[in-house]
Write a structure and sequence with these properties.
The complex is a heterodimer.
Chain A (H helix, E strand, L loop, with lengths): L5 E7 L2 E10 L4 H14 L5 E12 L1 H14 L6 E4 L3 H11 L14 H38 L6 H11 L4 H23 L7 H40 L2 H7 L4 H38 L5 H11 L2 H27 L5 H32 L3
Parallel strand pairs in A: 2-3, 3-4
Antiparallel strand pairs in A: 1-2
Helix pairs in contact in A: 1-2, 2-3, 4-9, 4-11, 5-9, 6-7, 6-9, 7-9, 7-10, 7-11, 7-12, 9-11, 11-12
Chain B lengths: L1 H5 L3 E10 L2 E11 L4 E5 L6 H9 L6 E6 L2 E2 L5 H9 L1 E4 L11 H12 L4 H14 L16 H12 L6 E5 L7 H18 L2 E5 L3 H6 L3 E6 L2 E6 L1 H6 L3 H8 L1 H7 L1
Parallel strand pairs in B: 3-8, 3-9, 6-7, 7-8
Antiparallel strand pairs in B: 1-2, 1-4, 4-5, 9-10
Helix pairs in contact in B: 4-5, 4-6, 5-6
Classes of the chains: A alpha/beta, B alpha/beta.
């Protein structure tokens, strides 16, 4: 019933008639566009132009627009192209399309060297903005904390306990498993290399100091940044997108007090607990490998461990945990509240939250290392 | 083709949908005729959106069959299904615009997937669609987060119409619009149905829409269609929910 679309030229003296036939719909759009472009080229300059559409079997917005485009481009000066033979079914569609104004210029932003330099400049300036944002959030959280200290009733215990369950209790299995494996690996590598000097037993010293001072807490902090920091950012970000945070504000609640403080508290309490459990799991894993692979008896391992490490090592490790938790929490909440309306923005900020969280945790660890070295711990 | 004109454009037979133990649709039958605007009403939570989503294929059904354009969507091949999907447009309740794309990119997204046309033509058609749904061309470069609720609905409609579908599903198109905006939207749906020869399946709560825009009304209750017919049939019905709906305070206000 409907054939391929065609556009035939019939010249009658000074008049030009273009007869459109067939199906003028979206599926034939590429063919139609070419035909219309050809017709525009070949029109010449006749006295009057008719576009006869009486033989068109089917017409949709694409076809109607292309006929309208042809009509517009053939209308030059005094000569006005006319559309003839329009069936009643399609006349309203053609009228509708006639109201369309010419396309505004779409700004195609091209990549230039100046543009790239500008982006670098903006990124550098953005670093200062990031730092200011973090300090701002730290201040806001501390202020909210003091308000809660003065009015302890306004502390959201239920929320804090809920977040504790999410970031602490539910994280235990994976944290213990990973730190256990890391302990095993450290011990195995230590034994393998120390054996050449006949210094197998020193693996206990290395394991104890490394796990309690550095690796235990650092590894757990990195895992928490990835596991809970990203969750915080995504939660707060989607709440921001759905205007839930604005809703809280209009009801007279401070989002920092209601949303951020419980999350921060949960994280600050959770990270030392997780770091402790992680350190224990790593020591256990290391001890197991030392026994099975290195032949160090458990009693000898424990004796050696007692000699090798002091309570200072443990304190140095565990003191870092709440500070790292605060850094992760602040970064996650700042990023969450910075989310704009789009899904893409949520993804970008969640990524930024984890990347910045891990970066600041490592920076913190470095600062602590210098500090503890200076005070001789 | 001749058969397709006589047959209903959507034919739903004995469809049952269950979520866990709750049966939302229970042996439901419904026909939507070619070229009509069907208003679909029912109490909140009756399963209006569920039926829409079942027809589109987003919710699995336990039993029954659904034919759209004469194609049974369960037994159809992938290419048949794609062909059907290309011929329908869906307006979701919240608009469901892609938040990371501009309005122009949103409208052009289906065109890019299904058609091979030049960027110039796509831009021009986008402008045509925006004009059709009553938006200014300047809106084209904005992101969905920069639009008002009514504009989001209009852009979503423009996107639903971008491939010139034969069938559009509208899920509560006028909810959240002011009465003037809602009236304009009803008028718009009517105009587009006339100009483009659309068939419209409209889930709605808006009595004004039912009176001004719809050709036929189907009422959902207890998982079945409890009544279908013209607005006059609905008013004459003795069903208690229908009596309340069409003779309540708000209905009287609409009828004047």
């Amino acid at each position: 019933m409907s054939g391929d679309p065609k556009l035939e030229r019939v010249a009658k003296g000074n008049a030009l008639a273009l007869c459109a036939t067939g199906t003028w719909t979206a599926s034939f759009a590429p063919v139609l566009e070419r035909m219309v472009a050809d017709a525009e080229q070949l029109a010449g300059s006749p006295q009057s132009i008719f576009i006869d559409v009486s033989e068109v079997a089917k017409l949709d917005t694409f076809g109607a627009w292309l006929i309208e485009r042809l009509r517009r481009s053939l209308t030059k000066g005094p000569v006005e192209a006319q559309i003839a033979g329009l069936s009643a079914n399609y006349s309203s569609l053609v009228d509708e399309v006639r109201r369309v104004r010419a396309t505004p210029v779409v700004d195609g932003s091209t990549i230039t060297i100046i543009g790239m330099l500008e982006q670098i400049g903006r990124a550098v300036a953005g670093v200062a903005g990031t730092m200011a944002g973090l300090v701002d959030m730290l201040g806001a959280v501390l202020a909210a904390g003091f308000r809660v200290l003065i009015h302890p009733r306004s502390f959201r215990l239920t929320s804090t306990v809920h977040h504790m369950e999410q970031v602490c209790w539910r994280a235990v299995p994976i944290i213990v498993l990973i730190t256990f494996l890391i302990g095993c690996i450290i011990a195995q590598q230590g034994i393998f290399h120390f054996r050449r000097f006949g210094a197998d037993i020193f693996v206990v010293d290395m394991l104890g100091v490394l796990v309690l001072r550095e690796i235990g807490v650092l590894l757990v902090a990195i895992m928490v940044a990835g596991r809970s920091g990203s969750a915080y950012t995504a939660e707060l970000g989607s709440m921001k997108m759905r205007e839930e945070i604005d809703a809280l504000r209009t009801m007279g609640f401070d989002p920092i007090e209601v949303l951020v403080l419980p999350r921060m508290m949960a994280l600050v309490i959770a990270l030392p607990i997780l770091a402790f459990l992680g350190a224990m799991a790593a020591l256990y894993g290391g001890g197991l490998v030392a026994w099975l692979y290195g032949g160090v008896q458990p009693e000898a391992f424990l004796l050696r461990l007692r000699d090798a490490i002091s309570i200072d090592h443990f304190i140095v490790g565990i003191v870092k945990a709440p500070v790292m938790a605060a850094v992760i929490g602040i970064v996650a909440c700042v990023e969450g509240l910075a989310v704009q309306g789009s899904a893409e923005s949520l993804g970008q900020h969640t990524t930024a939250s984890v990347v910045k969280g891990i970066f600041f945790v490592i920076v913190m660890d470095g600062i602590f290392a210098i500090f503890f070295a200076s005070i001789g711990m | 083709m001749a058969g397709e004109i006589q047959n209903p454009i959507i034919r739903v037979r004995d469809v049952t949908v269950q979520f866990g133990a709750t049966r939302v649709l229970d042996g439901l039958n419904l026909d939507v005729k070619r070229g009509e605007i069907l208003g679909f009403v029912g109490p909140s939570g009756a399963g209006k959106s569920v039926l829409t989503r079942t027809i589109i294929g987003l919710v699995p059904k336990v039993a029954g069959s659904i034919e759209v354009f004469g194609v049974d969507l369960d037994s159809s091949s992938t290419s048949q299904r794609r062909n059907v999907e290309r011929r329908w447009g869906v307006l979701f309740q919240q608009g469901a615009l892609f938040s990371s794309l501009t309005v122009r990119q949103n409208i052009q997204f289906p065109m890019r997937e299904y058609l091979r046309v030049s960027q110039r033509l796509m831009d021009e058609i986008t402008m045509a669609k925006l004009t059709m749904v009553g938006l200014k061309p300047e809106v084209a470069e904005r992101f969905p987060s920069e639009l008002s609720g009514g504009m989001i609905k209009r852009v979503a409609l423009a996107r639903a119409l971008s491939l010139d579908p034969d069938l559009v599903f509208l899920d509560e198109p006028t909810s959240g619009l002011d009465p003037i905006g809602a009236g304009d939207f009803d008028e718009l749906v009517r105009t587009l149905q006339r100009t483009l020869g659309l068939t419209v399946f409209m889930v709605t709560h808006d009595l004004d829409s039912l009176y001004t825009a719809c050709d036929r009304i189907a009422v959902l209750g207890n998982g079945k269609i409890i009544a279908a017919g013209s607005i006059a049939d609905m008013q004459a019905s003795q069903h208690p929910w229908l009596r309340q709906y069409f003779h309540g305070k708000r209905a009287r206000a609409v009828m004047g």
